[in-house]
Each structure stands twice: as structure tokens, then as C-alpha cells.
């Protein structure tokens, strides 16, 4: 047998083992586990359950079914009348159960959590269901969302609520060494979802945050489960008739609750689990194809929902698998050869793509001429590190630069440096603090709409809780600040500048993420989740605006020798910010998703590969060990 045949058999074996594991896990979680008496006894978690978004759909069904298990229930939603109605329904059905209602509007942001803490601190909470969520701009281009406040609202409601509610109940759960937090995401968090860009990105945050938090608290006896529903018959989905693909809320929640203690990440309902598996497989192998098909699907969905007189029908994609009778040996060999061909082609593509985008593209004169994008570039977080280097590189390319950061003195210092090096360049400074949520964007819009902006670099970001468990973060305001700074700033800046780029049919937006978005990051849970939002939002936005002549690039740096990574010195693994920014700008027009610098690209590629092939708990243990080593190194440095 030649080495190619051996390689074919090995490939077949790997894929067969992975497929057998996935199939057995699916059967165990969705059907067999409960029959064997496995899973979680919900009534033993604690006497109280808290459900947010509890007056409709999935949230209401969670409240009812938890009451059926004997738990007292706290219903949290914004409308007192609807809360009382649901409370009365549950009391009538389960008379011995205590029901408490709390009326708060989760779009109000930070102000509501002192009330929630006061109401919940006296209760022994065994289960928290973070269900509340809203959808804005669904089946609509991001730039066409008219209500700017709705961007703040969806981030406060879908992201901040989950983080702050988890923060409220975790300490008592860890103290008792038991408890359950269920975070409701969406299958859209794992798929490409152009035309549902901001909603899908919030659910990408939910997925990343929940999985990392789960690995942090698992040893404390606390379960964190992420649930990613597909279509369920609710007001949000606009569906009115349940079927085997789109269950009723009660049927969905009953299925989801049966998976508690069996899976940390699930779609709840069996058919949705199949959708999630195949969606992630297709996205891994053919990410651009998935974005194309999803934008076509959502365009047709928009026609169906908002133009009922139209005769258009939903695009239906039927995947047909044919069965061929073969001997086991021949089948394994053929599967191996086919899989080997696919992965060899993908590997060859990745290697050639790496060479082209990193070295060859610019030598051939390909890519984007920065000066042709427009006379002005805007850089947020422009006074230090990567942001400052981007500003200097763009000025060197002949663009006037708007520097945006919070410190007026540092802004002026950087502006003077750039002017001294490039005297013909205009430099404008805007001092705003991106940790503030709403009022700063009126100032930014007024200032920036006067200029013809060709390039936007969304670089501003902050880090909290490095190497620290999420439950140990003491400053609640810092949670609000990092969400505003790392997430809201990018969404709002894009929304301000996209209309003029769309009108001119040219422009570049670069959103700076992090390699942490592509790997498990326990002990860096909230930061990594904000960067997962950047990744999801940017890739979907890129698919939306590509046909309009606008380039949206996501940049995922590894370690760069900046103040944020103060323990790193410039090297081929952690380049100087100037080196990194120059390398990144050379990739514009050549790739949509990049790590910028060549060694970081290699890290990103193997990280994506590891996420697909290696069991997550092994990756998590490796990351935890890495952070423990970093903490020890930092402590040793302080003690010297």
C-alpha cells in the first residue's frame, strides 16, 4: 500500500471517528440521556428560578415549565400588565408556586441593575434563564437602519443584560457550588447572517461569552449552557404554525431543558441541532459560499414578510445525499480519498492565499490604493499602539487624518508628531470617551459628516479582567464600559460613515478584533466575547456591502508590543505596532479576514483548524494553563 493510500485511510478514520462522536453525542443529548436517567434534576438546583423576557414566547415557556418542576419563579420583563397576566396564569396552573415580578426595561442600560440586585439578593437562585432579546434591522441592510438609538438598545438588551444578570447571580451559585445559567443565543450566531448583521453579532457574543464562562465555573459546580434555537413559533420569528422544523415554544423549551447536564452548548431541539452542525461544517469549509446563500435567503425572507402581495417564495436549499452500496473497506478508502482531496485543496488554497496576501499581492500591484479611497481617514483609539501606527501609516500614504480618542493632550501630541513628519497633511482631533454610550455620537456625526471619509479604522478597545475569573470582577461599571468601548463604538461609527461611502460607492472600514475571538479564552471571558462580536459583525457587514464597492476588513492581531500587552517585547511573534499596521494595510483589497502580520496569520489558521478537529475541553485546558503562566510571570516581575 502506497503512502497516499495510507493517508487516505487515516483521513477516513479521523472523519469517521469525528462523525461517530458527533452522531452518538446527538443521539445521547437529544434522546438517550434522559431515558438513562442522566442529566440534571432541576428541582435540586435551588428554590428560585429567574427568567428574563418572561412574558412571551420562549421565556414564558421556560417560566411555566420551571414552575411545573416545582421552582418558584421570578418573571422579569418591561410591561407590568403582561407580567401580572403571566404570573396569574402560572399561579392558576401551579397553585403552590411563588411568583415574583420585576418590571424593568433592559434597553435602559446600566441604570436598572441596582433595582434588580436589590430584588434578587434576598433569594436563593438556582436557575437563571437569560432569554430577553430584541431584533433590529432583521432582513435589512445595516446602513439602512433608520433609528440609531436601536443600536444602543439591542446591545443593552441582548448583550449587557446577559452579562450583568450573570454577574448578579454567579457569586451565590459559586458559594453554594451549584446552579444553572442558561443563555439564549440563536443559530444565527453560528451562521453567516448578512441582512441580520447586528442581531447575529449579538448572538455571536452570547455564544463566545457563554462557552468561556462555562469553562471558568465548571469546577465550581455551576452549569452554564448556551442554547441556539433555529426558527421557533414566536412573535420575533413571525411564524404562526408549528411543525417538525419550527416547534412551538413549549415543545422547544421542554426539549432544551432535557439537555441540561448533558451538553453545555445545544440548539435545544433535535432538528435545530442538525442545522447547527451542518451550518458550522459548511462555514468552516466554504465560508464565502455560506454568506452568499444566506444573503439570498434573507432577501427572499424580507420579500415574504414585508411585501405579502409579492409572489416570491423562500429559497429552499435541498441537500440530497445518495447512498451507494460498497464494502466497508472500499467505502472507507473512497471517503478518505474524497476527504483528502477536499482538505488538500483547502490547504493548497490557504497556503497560496497566505503567500499572495502577505507577500505577492502588493508586488503584483494588487490591493487597494489607499489615497484613492477618499481624502480623509478616521482612526479611533489613535493615541497609542496599533491605532497610532495606523494613523501614521495613513498619513504617510497621503491621507488627511482624524484622530479620535479621549485624552486631548495625547491627541494633540500625536497630531503634532504626524504634522512634523508630513507637513502637507491635515490632522483633526476629536476628544470623546467611547465608554459613554449615547451622547458622544451626536458630536461625532456632526464633525465627521463635514468630511469626505475614505477609510475608517475602528481600533478603540479596552481590556478588563485579564487572567481573572468573570465572577471575580468587582467593578460593575467596567463591564458596561468594555461593551460600549469595544462593541457599541464600532457599530455606531460604521453606521455614521457607511451612508456617505455607499453614496460614493467606495470606501474602506477596518475593524480591529483579536485572535482571542477565534479560540477559547476563559479568564478573558468578556474581552474575548466582545471580539467575537467584532468578528461576526464585520464578516456579515462585508457580505452586505461588497456589491456596493465598499471593503470591510476584520483584523485579528495576536500579541503586539503595545501597552495592552505590556509583558511582550517586539519580536517576530509580537511585532512592533508600526510593523503590524504596515503589514495589515498591505492586505487591504486582498483578504476580508486577516490577522495582519504573517506569524499571526499562521496562528489564526491553526487556531481555526484546532477548533474544528480538537475537542474543546482540551483547548480550554491549554488556554487556562497559558494564562496561569502569564499570571505567574507578571507576579514574578512585580516581586523583583
Q: What percent of residues are in strands? A: 5-15%
- CATH domain class name of the largest domain: Alpha Beta
Mean pLDDT: 87
- The secondary structure category is alpha/beta
Please describe the biggest sheet, giving its number of strands, its sense, and whether it closes into a barrel.
Answer: 7 strands, parallel
The total beta strand count reads 14
Helix content class: 40-55%
Spans of 5+ residues with little confidence (pLDDT < 50)?
308-329
Number of helical segments with 4 or more residues = 18
Q: Strand sequence of the main sheet, in spatial order? A: 3-2-1-4-5-6-7
Shape: globular
Q: Into how many domains do the coordinates divide?
A: 4
CATH homology group of the largest domain: NAD(P)-binding Rossmann-like Domain
Instruction: Report how far apart the termini are.
Output: 60 Å
Give an overview of the whole structure.
The strands form 2 sheets. This protein has a 7-stranded parallel β-sheet, with helices on both faces. Strands 10-9-8-11-12-13-14 form a 7-stranded parallel β-sheet, sandwiched between helices. The chain is α/β, with parallel strands linked by helices and about 650 residues long. It is globular, with a radius of gyration of 25 Å. It starts with a helix and ends with a helix. It has 4 domains: about 1-40 and about 325-365, no CATH class; about 40-285, 3-Layer(aba) Sandwich (Rossmann fold); about 285-320, no CATH class; about 370-640, Rossmann fold, CATH 3.40.50. About 50% of the residues lie in helices and about 10% in strands. The chain has helices at about 5-35, 55-70, 80-95, 115-120, 150-175, 195-215, 250-255, 270-285, 285-305, 330-365, 385-395, 410-420, 440-450, 475-505, 525-545, 575-585, 600-615, 615-640; strands at about 50, 70-75, 100-105, 125-130, 180-185, 220-225, 265, 375-380, 400-405, 425-430, 455-460, 505-510, 550-555, 595.
Amino acid at each position: 500500500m502506497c503512502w497516499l493510500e495510507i493517508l487516505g485511510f487515516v483521513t477516513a478514520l479521523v472523519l469517521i471517528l469525528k462523525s461517530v462522536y458527533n452522531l452518538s453525542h446527538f443521539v445521547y443529548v437529544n434522546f438517550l440521556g434522559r431515558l438513562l436517567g442522566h442529566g440534571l434534576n432541576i428541582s435540586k438546583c435551588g428554590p428560585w428560578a429567574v427568567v428574563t423576557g418572561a412574558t412571551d414566547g420562549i421565556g414564558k415557556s421556560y417560566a411555566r415549565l420551571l414552575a411545573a418542576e416545582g421552582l418558584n419563579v421570578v418573571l422579569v420583563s418591561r410591561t407590568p400588565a403582561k407580567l401580572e397576566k403571566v404570573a396569574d396564569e402560572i399561579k392558576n396552573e401551579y397553585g403552590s408556586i411563588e411568583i415574583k415580578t420585576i418590571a424593568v426595561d433592559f434597553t435602559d442600560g446600566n441604570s436598572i441593575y441596582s433595582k434588580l440586585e436589590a430584588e434578587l439578593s434576598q433569594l436563593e437562585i438556582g436557575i437563571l434563564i437569560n432569554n430577553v432579546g430584541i431584533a433590529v434591522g432583521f432582513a435589512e441592510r445595516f446602513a439602512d437602519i433608520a433609528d440609531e438609538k436601536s443600536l444602543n438598545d439591542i446591545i443593552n438588551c441582548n448583550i449587557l443584560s446577559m452579562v450583568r444578570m450573570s454577574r448578579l447571580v454567579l457569586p451565590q451559585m459559586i458559594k453554594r457550588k451549584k446552579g444553572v445559567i442558561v443563555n439564549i443565543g440563536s443559530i444565527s450566531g453560528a451562521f453567516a447572517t448578512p441582512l441580520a448583521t447586528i442581531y447575529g453579532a449579538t448572538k455571536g457574543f452570547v455564544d463566545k461569552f457563554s462557552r468561556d464562562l462555562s469553562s471558568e465555573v465548571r469546577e465550581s459546580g455551576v452549569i452554564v449552557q448556551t442554547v441556539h434555537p433555529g426558527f421557533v413559533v414566536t412573535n420575533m420569528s413571525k411564524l404562526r404554525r408549528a411543525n417538525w422544523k419550527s416547534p412551538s415554544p413549549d415543545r422547544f423549551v421542554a426539549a432544551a431543558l432535557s439537555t441540561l447536564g448533558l451538553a453545555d452548548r445545544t440548539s435545544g431541539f433535535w432538528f435545530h441541532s442538525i442545522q447547527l452542525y451542518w451550518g458550522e461544517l459548511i462555514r468552516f469549509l466554504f465560508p464565502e459560499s455560506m454568506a452568499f446563500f444566506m444573503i439570498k435567503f434573507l432577501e427572499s425572507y424580507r420579500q415574504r414578510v414585508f411585501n405579502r402581495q409579492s409572489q416570491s417564495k423562500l429559497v429552499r436549499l435541498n441537500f440530497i445525499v445518495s447512498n451507494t452500496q460498497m464494502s466497508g473497506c472500499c467505502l472507507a478508502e473512497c471517503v478518505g480519498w474524497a476527504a483528502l482531496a477536499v482538505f488538500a485543496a483547502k490547504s493548497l488554497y490557504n497556503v497560496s492565499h497566505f503567500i499572495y496576501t502577505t507577500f505577492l499581492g502588493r508586488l503584483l500591484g494588487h490591493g487597494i490604493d489607499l489615497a484613492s479611497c477618499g481624502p480623509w481617514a478616521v482612526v479611533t483609539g489613535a493615541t497609542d499602539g496599533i491605532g497610532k501606527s495606523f494613523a501614521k501609516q495613513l498619513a504617510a500614504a497621503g491621507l488627511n487624518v482624524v484622530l479620535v480618542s479621549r485624552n486631548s493632550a495625547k491627541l494633540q501630541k500625536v497630531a503634532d508628531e504626524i504634522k512634523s513628519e508630513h507637513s502637507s497633511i491635515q490632522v483633526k482631533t476629536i476628544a470623546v470617551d467611547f465608554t459613554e454610550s449615547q451622547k458622544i455620537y451626536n458630536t461625532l456625526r456632526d464633525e465627521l459628516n463635514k468630511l469626505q471619509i475614505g477609510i475608517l479604522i475602528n481600533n478603540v478597545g479596552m481590556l478588563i479582567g485579564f487572567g481573572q475569573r468573570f465572577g471575580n470582577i468587582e467593578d460593575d461599571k467596567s463591564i458596561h464600559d468594555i461593551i460600549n468601548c469595544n462593541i457599541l463604538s464600532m457599530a455606531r461609527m460604521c453606521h455614521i460613515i457607511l451612508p456617505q461611502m455607499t453614496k460614493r460607492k467606495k470606501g474602506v472600514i477596518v475593524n480591529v478584533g483579536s485572535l482571542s475571538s477565534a479560540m477559547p479564552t476563559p479568564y478573558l471571558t468578556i474581552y474575548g466575547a466582545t471580539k467575537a462580536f467584532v468578528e461576526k459583525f464585520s464578516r456579515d457587514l462585508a457580505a452586505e456591502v461588497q456589491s456596493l464597492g465598499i471593503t470591510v476588513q476584520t483584523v485579528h492581531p495576536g500579541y503586539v508590543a503595545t501597552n495592552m500587552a505590556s509583558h511582550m517585547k517586539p519580536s517576530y511573534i509580537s511585532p512592533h505596532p508600526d510593523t503590524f499596521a504596515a503589514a495589515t494595510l498591505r492586505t487591504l483589497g486582498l483578504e476580508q479576514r486577516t490577522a495582519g502580520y504573517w506569524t499571526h496569520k499562521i496562528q489564526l489558521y491553526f487556531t481555526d483548524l484546532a477548533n474544528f478537529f480538537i475537542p474543546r475541553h482540551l483547548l480550554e485546558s491549554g488556554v487556562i494553563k497559558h494564562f496561569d503562566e502569564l499570571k505567574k510571570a507578571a507576579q514574578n516581575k512585580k516581586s523583583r
